[in-house]
Amino acid sequence: MEGEINNLVMVWMTVVASLCYCQTIGKIITHGTTRLLAILPVILLFLVLPLNLRTIFLGGPISFFVAWLATFKLLLFAYGKGPLSSNPPLPLPRFIPLACFPIKIQNEPSPNTAKQGQKSLTNYAIKALVFATIIPVYQNKSSIHPKVFLFFYCIYVYTGLEIILAMAAASVRAALGVELEPQFEEPYLSTSLQDFWGRRWNLMASAILRPTVYTPVRTITSRWIGRKWAPVPAVIAAFLVSGIMHELIFYNIGRSKPTWEVSWFFLLHGICLAIEVSIKKAVNEKWRLPPVVSGLMAVAFVMATGLGLFLPALMRLEADVMAHREIVAFIEFVKSVSIQLRMDKVIVFSAFGSS
Fold first, then answer.
1. How does pLDDT run across 186-210, given as a tens digit for each residue?
2. Closest C-alpha to 306, from 156, 205, 128
């Protein structure tokens, strides 16, 4: 654990130094191909930097933050677009967290949107308690049916992701003093696949895929198939890129050759979402399914395909074994640090007492 923390410090120092360079480049080179060439070494570095971490709880989030989000934001920044581009240029204390954390600042937050962005502590406490059951469930894995265990792990993936992203957002909120948009909006309440992926699940990923993949593909294909149907290939392209980036994250975690099941999972959802969008365009609104029915179908489809494609790929990396081992190691590390602090306190008091 201590060695991994040292590696984490090294990774973040490299990220901060690289982003300082990119922010400086943004001031002296106008947006375009020249700026892209200037920051391209940083983009390539960010793609491999998470390989310095071996744990799922550190390597996984850093892969998402740095290898995916930061690289895509820098690609937009190279052409004067995205959250890192503004006039006047963003100050460094804001440029860095916006680049490497999954956050989106609310421009003019109203009281209602502020409440929406900040869920109650009870909400997070319940999800933390649910996630904490991973230890007893893992310890009794042999007595649990494999499909039931995968179902539990599906819940752990969601609760773990939301807690990690909420902690990152809370840290940035406290540092910058700004209101942030939420990352998850209770995805189990979705009314359709479009609602699930576009408005409820990992919204930062959707927000970064939209300008980098969806919009360019829609613009290009609209010349060939018209503006009405151009969103169909654009949606599929965005999901395909999402699948590839998830394959990169999985590789960084497990160092195993991709089986491409994760890519098939996202491609399948992209195709199904494109079909759903097409049906909505073609069918009168009064003929659509009630939200309760379509929502249950959408959530069931996500769960079924997740259990069949997404989670098996994750379990082949022994993610459950890694997670259990890291939780236990972290608990032992905290215990050792607290014992050392108590011993240091006793030594200090003894020294003062003897003097």
1. 999 999 999 999 999 988 899 999 9
2. 156
All structural domains of the chain with their residue ranges: 1-102
Residue 105, classed as helix, strand or coil, is strand
What is the rounded distance in angstroms from the CA atom of residue 98 to the CA atom of residue 69? 10
Helix (H, G, I), strand (E, B) or coil at 308: helix
Long-range contacts of residues 181-186, Cβ cutoff 8 Å, at least 24 apart: 181/103, 181/104, 181/105, 181/106, 181/113, 181/117, 182/116, 182/117, 182/119, 183/102, 184/158, 185/116
Question: Can you give the pTM of this predicted structure?
Answer: 0.83
Q: Find the helix or strand (DSSP H, E) in which 143 lies.
A: none
Confidence (pLDDT) at 132: 85
Cβ–Cβ under 8 Å, residues 77 and 39: yes
8 Å CB contact between 298 and 196? yes
